[in-house]
Write a structure and sequence with these properties.
The protein is built from eight helices and seven strands; from the N terminus they run E-H-E-H-E-H-E-H-E-H-E-H-E-H-H. With 230 residues, the protein is of the alpha/beta class. It has a single domain (3-229), classed as P-loop containing nucleotide triphosphate hydrolases (Rossmann fold, 3-Layer(aba) Sandwich), CATH 3.40.50. The chain starts with a strand and ends with a helix. It has a seven-stranded parallel β-sheet, sandwiched between helices. Helix 1 packs across helix 8. The radius of gyration is 17 Å and the shape is globular.
């Protein structure tokens, strides 16, 4: 069963938000999902205690690097999808979790500082690949972007990534009031009301596009592994 790890050495890049959007979107499609909250601030565990969490979604609080691999493997036996939200620092736990990933998502805001940290996360994935002796697909997800304006600085950062051979998600998670609201009110994008957030349909479309792209990447990765075995 696929394990998707959200990793970035920099806090505030949007890991917990994007992990939540992926998990709830998959659950909305009828999939059973386990989210492992390994962020020391426990944003997803706190969200899960509010009303409205989908029935098919389980959130586990992870505090120890010594058993993160066992936690991931147990979750993979229990549900078709496992999502790991790592803390915003480079750590041994990050290395262990990435070593078990079928896909690593590296959220990054469109700033030079975030881009540098995202490249560091890509290097960590490459090190983990050497450690386990198998490819670990990864891609950078640009977050908190403006849906109406594409600044030159963002274009320059995208060019930096591609020139280094770093894969980018075609989908960008835009700056959305609804993405923040789910952590304030609980539930999912689909349970928010217009009194709680603006432009909810656009937020749902954005999150679903991201989820669809994750699924396509997972399928492509599985196909590549079959080819290697053959």
């Amino acid at each position: 069963m696929p394990t998707i790890v959200f990793a970035s050495p920099k806090g505030g890049a949007g890991k917990s938000t994007s992990a939540n959007l992926l998990g709830t979107s998959l659950a909305n499609r009828g999939a059973a999902v386990t989210i492992i909250d390994a962020d020391l601030n426990r944003p997803l565990a706190k969200w899960a205690k509010r009303p409205g969490k989908p029935e098919g979604l389980t959130v586990i609080e992870q505090t120890s690097e010594s058993n993160i691999i066992e936690t991931i493997e147990a979750a993979a036996r229990a549900t078709p999808f496992v999502i790991v939200d790592l803390e915003g620092t480079a750590s041994q736990m990050a290395t262990f979790a990435i070593s078990r990933a079928d896909l690593v998502v590296i959220p990054s805001k469109g700033s030079q500082l975030d881009a540098v940290e995202a490249v560091a996360a890509v290097r960590l994935v490459a090190q983990c690949e050497k450690m386990v002796g198998t490819p670990i697909p990864c891609a950078v997800l640009l977050t908190q972007t403006n849906p109406a304006i594409r600044p030159r600085s963002l274009t320059a950062i995208e060019e930096q990534f591609t020139s280094r051979g770093v894969k980018l998600f075609d989908t960008r998670l835009h700056e959305r009031d609804a993405f923040r609201a789910i952590f304030s009110f609980g539930g999912t994008l689909r349970t928010l009301t217009t009194a709680q957030a603006r432009n909810i349909p656009a937020a749902i479309e954005n999150a679903d596009a991201f989820t669809g792209e994750v699924i396509r990447m997972l399928k492509a990765g599985a196909t590549d592994q079959k080819k290697e075995v053959a």
